[in-house]
Amino acid sequence: MIPDQRIHDLNQSLLDNHQFQLNYVTDLLGRRQIDAQDVIRQIVDFQVAIPSWALGTGGTRFGRYPAGGEPRSLEEKIEDVGLLHKLNGSSNSISLHIPWDIPQDIAALEQLLREQKLVIDSVNSNTFQDQKDQPYSYKFGSLLNTEEAIRQQAIQHNIDCIGYGKQLGAKTLTVWLADGSNFPGQQHFRQAYQRTADSLASIYEAMPSDWTMLIEYKPYEPHFYSMVIPDWGTSYALCQATGKNAQVLVDLGHHLPNTNIEQIVARLLHFGRLGGFHFNGSSYGDDDLTTGSSKPFQLFLIFNELVDGKLDQLVNNPAVAYMIDASHNTKDPLEDLLQSVDNILTTYAKALIVDRATLREAQQNNDVVKAEETLRDAFLTDVRPLVAEAYRQSGGALQPIAAYRAERVREQLIQRRGKLSVSTGL
Ligand code: AOS
Ligand code: ZN
Ligand code: ZN
């Protein structure tokens, strides 16, 4: 959709300005003994998975305003992610959602994935909605249901998801449960937990040994009195009970206001159980907005823990799966995803330039102000030229959103797919 030559020409027109800014940051970091090229290399290597359900508008239960040109099939979703990846070189994988993305022609999909230089990272199961032709309802829960047959149906759905994932080379199953209760007394808490643990164990047993199961927690919604996995502690306990390839997934919007998410991240790294991330932005709850949009400092503190954990020999945590989980009603979803990735990379770059030796020393000496100033110093450094350079070095656009607009991509998509095409999603 955007020819390489066009990206090259657009970059050419910005190059002079870019080079000036890049030289400045490179020099600035050099004076702090930091090699800018090394930071750029790490940004180039950082990849964030795009969820298939974020490619169309989502929004709220009060209304949905389609952007037009939304992908109508898994093939078109892959094309959209391919486009993002072409623009920023940082979105090389796609998270599938079953049953919204059931793969049909495997050979053709594999071919398309190769062309677009993409892989499938994780498969998300869905036991939060009843599917048509499904014998039993999840109205009163799936893996925790009091009825054995309903639990079996939900277990089988997760096993089917693993099957679909295997066909396309995925190695991760993400389980988010909408199971919970709305009224006091409705559920027996301990039994509900145990049934969930047992169901997860059955799924785990059917999972190949080189797969990872990610267990996501959420404090409320769709249920408002209790959720069976409301917090990281419950996820962690379930992972411990399930097996070594079960890991906790942290969704940034799944915390009560003012929760110290960076500390949760540090705890999970310490225990070697941090499996994945769902990046999004939250002001109140599971808002699924652009990550880093309203709380950039919080995102920085989270990345600071991730980088610190990666550098620490004592941390024995498997590779973390970075994924976006967003849903938009007012933004063009593709523009949002470019913004989200840009926020993630910019924040990552800031965490990479934290003066760790000084920070450790300040912590050791209980120098509160020095420690905080060390973090502020990195956070307030403008690292955007490093991210732009990373885009350029991976063949992308210096300014992905500007390139997307210059090419009138949304208009092209509307022409091809129609104004009313609606993607399957939340
Ligand atoms: C729901 O609140 C969770 O964030 C899920 O991770 C996700 O949005 C859903 O599973 C999409 O399939
Ligand atoms: Zn999520
Ligand atoms: Zn969510």
Overview of this protein structure:
There is one protein chain. The protein has about 425 residues and is of the alpha/beta class. The chain has a single domain (about 45-355), classed as TIM Barrel, CATH 3.20.20. It is about 50% helix and about 10% strand. It has helices at about 5-30, 35-45, 75-90, 105-115, 150-165, 190-205, 230-240, 260-270, 295-310, 335-350, 355-365, 370-380, 385-395, 400-405, 410-415, and strands at about 50, 95, 120-125, 170-175, 180, 210-215, 225, 245-250, 275-280, 320-325. The strands form two sheets. It has an eight-stranded parallel beta sheet. A two-stranded antiparallel ribbon has the order 5-7. Helix 9 (about 295-310) links the parallel strand 9 and strand 10 (about 320-325). Helix 2 crosses helix 10 (about 335-350) and helix 2 (about 35-45) packs across helix 13 (about 385-395). The longest helix is centred in the first third of the chain and has 27 residues, at about 5-30. It is globular and about 65 Å long. The two termini are about 25 Å apart. About 45% of the residues are buried. D-allose binds near residues 97, 124, 176, 251 and 278.
